[in-house]
Amino acid sequence: MINSSFHGKSHALNTFVLPLLWYVLKILDPPHEFVEKVIKSVLKFLWGGRRHWVPQKWLFLPKDQGGLGIFHPLAMTHTFRISFLQKCLQSKDDSYFLSH
């Protein structure tokens, strides 16, 4: 079982830190280096300089699947793109494209 302090840190990341990136990621395609730096910063904050005992891929899993539920920046970028495309395809007319 993962320590409760990790759950607190993951909640802080998802609530206060990572949403600052989501606004920008809705518009821009991040370079691979940027995503890697964000992930490294998340891991550094989460582990606090200690050894990583849990594989990184498990940290980004949803809580109901045994992970911490930290939102992965690249996954969120793809989610924003898919949501935008769904809105475009569901629009009844072309006014959606003209207003956005």
The count of DSSP E runs of length 2 or more, i.e. the number of strands, is 0
> Which structural class should the secondary elements be placed in?
mainly alpha
User: Which runs of at least 5 residues are low in confidence (pLDDT < 50)?
Assistant: none
| Count of alpha and pi helical runs | 6
Tell me, what's the shape? elongated
CA distance, first residue to last residue: 46 Å
> Main sheet, how many strands, which sense, barrel?
none
User: How many distinct domains?
Assistant: 1
Strand content: under 5%
- H and E order: HHHHHH
Q: Radius of gyration, Cα only, in angstroms?
A: 16 Å
Helix fraction by DSSP (H/I, runs of at least 4): 55-70%
Mean pLDDT: 84
Q: What would you say this structure looks like, in words?
A:
This protein is mostly helical and 100 residues long. It is elongated, with a radius of gyration of 16 Å. It contains six helices and no strands. The model has no long low-confidence stretch (mean pLDDT 84). The chain has one domain. Helix 1 (4-17) packs across helix 3.
Question: Can you give keywords for this protein?
Answer:
elongated; mainly alpha; 100 residues
Write the layout of secondary structure elements.
Blueprint: H1 4-17, H2 19-25, H3 32-47, H4 56-59, H5 73-90, H6 95-99
Helix pairs in contact: 1-3
